[in-house]
Amino acid sequence: MAHYKFLSRCTNTCIGLFLVLTLSACDSTPDEEQINAAIEAMSAAVENKQASEIGDYLHDDFLANGKMNAKQVRQLLMLQGMRHSNISITKVSSKTVIDPVYSDKAETTLSLIITGSSGGLPNDGSVRVVKLEWWKDGSDWKVLKASWKEY
Question: What is the dotted CATH code of the domain comprising 30-150?
Answer without folding.
Answer: 3.10.450.50
